[in-house]
Write a structure and sequence with these properties.
The complex is a heterodimer of chains A (310) and B (370). A 4-stranded mixed beta sheet of chain A has the order 9-2-11-10. Chain A has a two-stranded antiparallel ribbon with strand order 3-4. Chain A has a two-stranded antiparallel ribbon with strand order 5-6. Chain A has 2 domains: 256 residues, Alpha-Beta Plaits; 33 residues. The relative contact order of chain A is 0.19. Helices cover 28% and strands 16% of the residues of chain A. Chain A has 310 residues and is of the alpha+beta class. In chain A, a hairpin with a 5-residue loop joins strand 5 and strand 6. Chain B is an all-alpha fold and 370 residues long. Chain B has one domain: Up-down Bundle (Formate dehydrogenase/DMSO reductase fold), CATH 1.20.1630.10. In chain B, helix 3 packs antiparallel against helix 6 and helix 8 runs antiparallel to helix 9. The chains are: A alpha+beta (310), B mainly alpha (370). At the A-B interface, strand 1, strand 3, helix 4, helix 5 and strand 7 of A face helix 3, strand 1, helix 5, helix 6 and helix 8 of B. Strand 1 of chain A pairs parallel with strand 1 of chain B.
Chain lengths: 310, 370
Amino acid sequence: MTVQNLPTPTFGGGYAEARPRMGFFTDTSVCIGCKACEVACKEWNLLPTGALGFSGKSFDNTLELDAETWRHVAFVEQSLSPPLDLAGSAAAATEGAAGATVRRGMFGGAEPSAADGAGATDGVRWLMSSDVCKHCTSAACMEVCPTGALFRTEVGSVVVQPDICNGCGYCVPACPFGVIGRDREDGRAWKCTLCYDRTRDGLEPACAKACPTDSIQYGPLDELRERAGARLGDLLAAGESRANLYLADEANGVKGAGAFFLLLDEPEVYGLPPDPVSTTRDVGAFWKAAGIAAGALLAGVAAAFAGGRR
Amino acid sequence: MSPWRNGRRREPGGGGAGSATLPGRPIETPGREAPEDGPGRHGQAARVGPARIPAAAPPGETTVPTTAPRSYYGQPVLKEPVWTFEIPWYMFAGGLAGASAPLAFAARLAGNHRLARAALTAGAAALAVSPPLLISDLGRPERFHHMLRVLRPTSPMSVGSWLLTALSPAMIGAAVADRLGITPRLGRTAEGVAALLGPALATYTAVLVADTAVPAWHEAGAELPVVFAGGAAASAGAAACLLTPPEHAGPARRLAVGGAVAELAAAQVMEQRLGELGEPYRRGRAGRLSVLAKALSVTGAAVLGLAGRRRPAAIAGSLLLLAGSACERHAVIEAGRQSARDPKYVVGPQRRRLDERGGVHAPGPETAGL
């Protein structure tokens, strides 16, 4: 038995070889919704196909990350109002950027429609984003795991050991992103491993490898954050006024994440929590409240006898 | 203000007066919930039609934010707990056992050996069913012993596993020693150990549910331990009353009534303080269970408190209190499920928190949603 109390992990700690923290930068502005990441993930990790039905929610048929789905592409359709003003405002935005050409997703931007009229955009702003486990710095799933099945790897990712997990299910409601799931048939918890069997050996994860537009980028976190900052600047300059970085720094309730995103709207539009908090941040206060309640219980028992012994 | 948030400032004056209240996708409450919700803003939003522009909040409605939270097709942000029916029953049994232990010890000190025996018996029985309940809930029951690989204060389940491992033999051993009249000194020691560990077992389950991302549990972390401790006292007192002649059950009666009052009061305070997140405790299945729990506990406490010196009334009151405490645990679990299922309880409070911190809100002047 080992006593584990590691609210804030030290990266590289416990490993013979110090390696930089690796992660994903998902630039949703160039995502084209091809789902190559979903497929590559399932192929490499030998995950079941899951639902192949039509959800009626745009092109999304997986709908969420789960034990069997470790990459999930979200499709958000927004109507532009007034729809026909699009070309004008887009032209204005492009002018504002002083002729800067910024590559965007298939329908995320308005350049094609400015030339093609109603063509590609058709009054619709289409947001796509490939979601994945965030590999949080303060990883609630790992911190609440009573078996030690979840651990921090040498590249900073958070991985479930299938030979240890006993399927208690605590990690499932603990995750502030609803990422990890318990497999109904298998009984154990599963989630993205950042392709531990590839990244350990210096390869990039299957999803990043398969992404045709480099929307999913894998690399040292420091480098990715720098790249993301520059990209955000470009998009803002091009008039993509609501572009924002999600979980790119440490100033959030999970103390930073190994997978962060460049979004074109608020996180909740993509099904992401706007201000996620690792629940274990407050566990000290909860224990204190429980201690007080336990003390009150003892006092109550004593008081019950104060009124007479029988 | 973080440099990463530069793009997220509110755009001054963009899009006119209506822009700030035009979310892309206001969350719609599922249809079957609609009658319970009443004619709230979600029902109105659904009637607007394809544009799904929410109507203004009706006057007097204060729990709903001025801007309805947006979501991804109303999909849950969080995963609902996968725990099955065993867990609320375990919380009930663990609470009963946890409060029975100090009751037995105190009765022993007071020389009330009949009451001590009754409390030991009830606690030992509850502890005997607890491990099977917990193990059968596991996805891989044969690996239950993996719980004892580590001890982790950030995991209440880990702490609870160790508590249960220590308390079960102490309590069951003490009960057996008492019944058989063997090893009295060891039996008394075990009773003392159990009395110390019991209250922790009765309250850690509140920390267990609070230490999740589930909004109705996490935000209730201050009051839930009191609710659970009160319920534990009520059920332990009631169980002891069932097994003890009324003339010996005075302290158990007082503990049961006091516990029920504490449970009811703490639950009331909790639901009030939670504001919008108190809704899951009042709606749907959780709301029905909660009303039932309160009715059972109030009636049980009244019957036991006023007429508990007569055996039939003591039995009736005790059974009502036990049922009330069990219902309250089920209500709490169900309220958590409901709050995890509906993204408005996840997104709404977080968005307001963000707004208060830095005014980062950009519904966007030009999009109206589909």
